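Morning!

This is the sequence you dropped in the shared folder:
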Amino acid sequence: MRASIYCAHCKSPATVRNSFFLSPLLRRLFCVCRNPLCGHTFVAELETIRTLSPSGTPDPDIQLPTSTRARAYKKEADLIHTLARNFLEEHQAEHLSHHRQRLIERCIKHLMEVKGISASAAEGIALQALDECESRDRGEYIDFHPDIT
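The structure's back. Tokens below.
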């Protein structure tokens, strides 16, 4: 989907002829109405106001509030990850190393039943949680976020 700017007078689409950087979060746009009967030229500003999904390469100088929906999504994702890790820690002793796959399958089934998530999502979360549990014993940690592709 492409963003559009419209003339405030005739409500026709406008074209951005030029833009200037004002700050990392703000650009000034110079626009012209496409309606030949109107011909209005105007200046608009485009501002970044909040985060919907966090950046995979965040700039520490950029501080944007996170949307309410994104905060709720992260809270739920953290809860599901903790649920998986707790399940694995509770049941890991029941499975010897050659039954690792069975432990993963049980965790996936548990996440699907308790949280109603898809098998593929549950598998990713279960594998991440298991790697976290296993790496903790070796003093290693992999930082992985499910939003990063």
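Headline: The radius of gyration is 24 Å.

More detail when I'm at my desk.
O.
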